[in-house]
Design brief:
flat, 4% helix
Length: 694
């Protein structure tokens, strides 16, 4: 069983983040191809024939932190020998601390492929980028960057040495603008403009992203330069650095904006703007009695929804629990709170919501004024009363299917029929771990029992009841069984009491995993370590002979400057919670990748590239312990694979005694050639990512 080794960088869900075993992802294919062309070109020229261009930038055109991508974005410009250069440098960090040394996969694809260097509007494809960032972003920053790539022609490799500086602007003066009657304008689905005339005659305009919420603190990088300016007659002042802004909304339907702009005139401009919610163009009254109870409890969010033949209403609160009371402003997610006539092509986002909840044991009331972006004020009243119990039914389900969606969506699903197939159960629980304990309606969403009145499968003659209230007791035996007993009142006015057993194993035996033969390995300073940053940290250790590799995925809130992974004990599980290591889901046959964490052997194919092969160990349970000893890492993996086979790996970055070295294989050597780290084994050269170098 062979799998081509591939390192892929992703920034979405775990399903998108699976570790792809083909080494040639788009990023590395582009880098390798560019490097191959460079090597071909260099074969015709002496090593010292590379041109060197020095670019110095005193103040960047743009410098900001992107919270969504977890990266810093730098843009600067300078003129060298009558050539106008633009420098684009995007690098990943685990926090807003921008300092450190960044290279390889630490640098965003955009820097490599879209033109980290642009000369007279012509991008230069890069093959290598290194950036050393020092200083304090509250005072001054220095970036010493080396970018290797192409010059004006395809046979003209160039080294760009960039001296990039930033110092916190010191304003000449502070100017205050008060706008008592500003305007609030939704430009599209993800941005908002506040504008108006200030008390000193200046026109003021700020544009910022309004994804999820219109209100709150808008940090640097979230206030857009587009449509952000100050103007008086022919004078226009634009932001010299990314502005900051704070927006609040009170119960009197008034937005309040506070913003600071360091302008192109080198003054600090402070803006205080009040903008009322636009006067409604129409008012629609919606009153629903005994509406279908369809509220959901997410880990950090509560949603109240109504889906009727006439209107669709969705109301989101950024809280894990909602109590009786009034909610307004940033207590409600404005952007994703929508209302629209059923069947309408577009939902109408709300620009103002004032909602009052009255939550009781047997009834629930929601009163909301929701003004939508189409100008209509919807005065909504939703009343729900628990239905009287018509009957109690006892059901035993069998052959229940269990779906573990914890890592993907923080939930688990149970699906199955009663022995006579006349009852069908669909139950979903929110949980961040294998369910074990007591759960109620707050943990359950869109769960129902379908009752076929005549015969199985007769959908026309069936009743469907969604869970309203109840208790679900789950017991996991820690091995291979989950036992469930429950009682729930459903929308069909029936109380269902049920029980069932479903199979689930901590070590679900996975195809391709090693069934026997414990794995014990010791690695020291000669081992090859490779790390890759994204929403996770990939940590790979390859033995000196390049015949086997360990790949771990850590979820981290922070890193250690010396050893990358902070000291501590990291449980291996499928929760993807901070401070854990991903448990392997085995081989995805359709996509052709192995999901971390795992250990595999390496062989060389006919093309001279490395591939994974048997034996494979899919690490599913255990711990990874990291110690920091005299500034270096000591890591111990004490785990099992899906068959319960022992996996013990000890790595000491300062150790020289490697117990697992083969006696008949020459160890690999590492050295630097032309600024690139190469690995030499059996007279063959490889890059750090396993590609053979010709």
């Amino acid at each position: 069983m062979l799998f081509c080794l591939r390192i892929r960088k992703n920034y979405a869900t775990f399903a998108q983040n699976c570790y792809n075993t083909n080494i040639f992802t788009t990023l590395f294919m582009k880098k390798f191809f560019a490097l191959f062309l460079t090597l071909c070109a260099l074969s015709c020229y002496a090593a010292d024939a590379l041109d060197t261009i020095r670019i110095s930038v005193e103040q960047p055109d743009y410098l900001a932190y992107d919270n969504e991508q977890g990266m810093w974005l730098y843009e600067g410009s300078a003129k060298v020998n009558n050539v106008r250069y633009k420098v684009y440098l995007n690098w990943y960090t685990f926090s807003e601390d921008m300092t450190g040394t960044f290279t390889g996969s630490d640098i965003d694809d955009y820097t490599y492929n879209q033109g980290g260097i642009v000369a007279n509007n012509m991008p230069r494809l890069l093959t290598d980028v290194t950036a050393v960032v020092t200083g304090d972003r509250n005072t001054a920053i220095h970036i010493d960057a080396t970018l290797k790539g192409w010059g004006p022609t395809s046979t003209d490799p160039v080294i760009y040495l960039c001296d990039l500086n930033w110092s916190k602007p010191q304003p000449k003066d502070t100017v205050e603008y008060i706008v008592p009657k500003g305007n609030f304008v939704l430009t599209n689905s993800d941005s908002t403009i506040f504008n108006g005339k200030a008390n000193n005659g200046w026109a003021v305009s700020l544009c910022f992203d309004s994804y999820i919420q219109y209100t709150g603190e808008k940090a640097r990088g979230h206030v857009f330069d587009k449509n952000t300016y100050l103007a008086y007659l022919k004078d226009t002042i634009t932001p010299l650095t990314s502005p900051t802004a704070t927006v609040t909304l009170d119960e009197n339907r008034m937005y309040h904006l506070y913003a600071e702009i360091f302008g192109s005139d080198e003054n600090l401009h402070v803006i205080k703007l009040d903008a009322p919610v636009p006067t409604p163009t129409d008012t629609v009254v919606i009153h629903k009695y005994d509406w279908e109870l369809n509220d959901m409890m997410l880990p950090d969010e509560w949603a109240c929804k109504y889906f009727g033949e006439d209107y669709q209403i969705e109301l989101y609160i950024p809280a894990a629990e909602v109590k009786s009371g009034t909610y307004v402003g940033d207590q409600i997610y404005g952007y994703i709170t929508v209302i629209s006539p059923s069947g309408a092509y577009d939902n109408y986002n709300s620009v103002f919501i004032n909602a009052t909840f009255d939550i009781r044991d047997t009834c629930r009331f929601v009163y909301a004024d929701m003004q939508a972006e189409n100008g209509t004020l919807y005065k909504v009243t939703l009343e729900y009363h628990l239905p009287p119990v018509k009957d109690t039914v006892d059901v035993t389900f069998q052959n229940i299917e269990f779906f573990d969606n914890i890592q993907l969506a923080q939930n688990v699903t149970f699906l199955g029929y009663s022995p006579d197939s006349l009852y069908y159960l669909s139950m979903n629980l929110y949980t961040t771990e294998i369910p074990n304990g007591s759960y109620n309606e707050k943990d359950v969403y869109r769960s129902f029992i379908l009752h076929y009145l005549t015969e199985p499968g007769d959908e026309e003659n069936a009743t469907q009841g969604f869970m309203l209230y109840g208790t679900i007791d789950v017991e996991f035996d820690g091995l291979d069984s989950i036992f469930v007993q429950g009682e729930m009142l459903c929308t069909d006015s029936i109380v269902y009491r049920f029980d069932f057993r479903t199979a689930w194993s901590v070590s679900k035996q996975q195809d391709g995993d090693t069934e026997e033969g414990e794995l014990i390995r010791y690695y020291g300073e000669n081992a090859i370590v490779d790390t890759e940053f994204g929403y996770y940290l990939k940590y790979a250790i390859t033995n000196p002979e390049i015949t086997e590799q360990l790949v771990l995925w850590f979820t981290l809130d922070m890193t250690d400057d010396d050893i990358v992974v902070p000291a501590g004990t990291y449980p291996i599980n499928s929760t993807a919670a901070p401070g854990t290591v991903f448990a392997s889901a085995g081989i995805n046959q359709s996509e052709g990748y192995i999901t971390p964490s795992f250990f595999a052997s390496l062989v060389m194919n006919e093309e001279g590239n490395l591939r994974y092969t048997d034996p494979l160990y899919f690490i599913v349970d255990g711990t990874v312990t990291v110690e920091k000893v005299d500034g270096h890492m000591v890591m111990t993996v004490d785990a099992v694979n899906s068959f319960g086979v022992k996996v013990y790996i000890h790595y000491d970055a300062a150790a020289t005694d490697l117990h697992n070295l083969s006696q008949d294989t020459a160890p690999a050597l590492k050295r630097i050639e032309n600024g690139q780290v190469v690995i030499i084994r059996n007279n063959a050269k490889f890059s750090l990512i396993g590609t053979r170098i010709l």
